[in-house]
Amino acid sequence: MLKNKVALVTGAAQGIGLAISEEFAVQGADVILSDNNPQVLDTAKNLNQKYPGKITGKILDIMDVNSIRVGLEQAVSEFGKLNYAINNAGGGVLKPFAQLTDSDFDTTINLDLRGTFLCMREEIKLFLKQGFGSIVNTGALGSIYNPGGMGAYNAAKNGIMGMTQAAAVDYADKNIRINCVAPGLTKTALNEGEFLEKVLPTVPMKRAATPAEIAKVFVFIASQASFMTGQTILSDGGVSVGLK
C-alpha cells in the first residue's frame, strides 16, 4: 500500500493517465490529477469520493514551464512532498512521413518531447531539494515497432527514451529514479475504430490492453522497482518479441 505517498500524474483527465491515477488511489496514495483539460477537476472529485487518500485535480499546461513550476509548488505546499511524478501527457500528428508539415512535426515534438523535458527538469529540481523521488515517463511501442504513419511521433517518443536514460545516469546517486513505460496497443478513446482493428491482428495475445493493466506497470515501476533506473519497459502483449 502507498499510504502517505504522493503522486502527480499529467494527462490525467482520461485514458491511461486517469487509469494510473486511479491505480495510485487504489493503493492508498494521495494523488494529484493534472491536465490542460478542465474536465480533470471533476474527474478528481469523483475519485476522491471513492478512495481513502486525498485526491485533487489541477489544470496544468506541460508546454508552459511556469504552469509546471506553480503546479509542483502547489503540490508540495498542499501535501508536504511529492514521491512520484508520472509524465503521461502527450499526443501528436500521425501521417505518412512525406505528408508531415512543419507544423505537424513541431506540434508533435513540442507536445511529447519538449513537454516531457520541461516536466522532468522541474521535477528533478524538486526531488534534489527533497532528497528523493521517482519519475516515470510515457513512451510508446511505436518507437520500436509501428504500423506506419508515426514519423514525428516516433521521433518524440524515442527522444523521451533517450532523455530517460540520460537523466537517470545524472541523478542515480541522488536517490532519484527515472524510468519509462512504453505501452502497446491499449483500448482507449483515441484508439477505437479503424486503428484498433488494423493493429490488433499483429498482437500475439490477440487483444488490446486495458488502461488499468498498463497503469499497474507504471505504479509498480514508480513505487516498487527500487533498483531500476534508466529503463524503458514494454507492456505490449508480445508484439516486440514476435508476430503470431
TrEMBL record:
Pfam families in UniProt: adh_short_C2
InterPro entries (alphabetical): NAD(P)-bd_dom_sf, Sc_DH/Rdtase_CS, SDR_fam
One of the GO biological process terms: bile acid metabolic process
SUPFAM superfamilies: NAD(P)-binding Rossmann-fold domains (SSF51735)
GO MF entry, a single one: oxidoreductase activity
Keywords (A to Z) from UniProt: Oxidoreductase
Domain of life of the source: Bacteria
UniProt cross-references to PANTHER family, sorted A to Z: DEHYDROGENASES, SHORT CHAIN, ESTRADIOL 17-BETA-DEHYDROGENASE 8-RELATED
Family: Belongs to the short-chain dehydrogenases/reductases (SDR) family.
Protein name: Short-chain dehydrogenase reductase SDR
Source organism per UniProt: Ligilactobacillus pobuzihii
Lineage: Bacteria, Bacillati, Bacillota, Bacilli, Lactobacillales
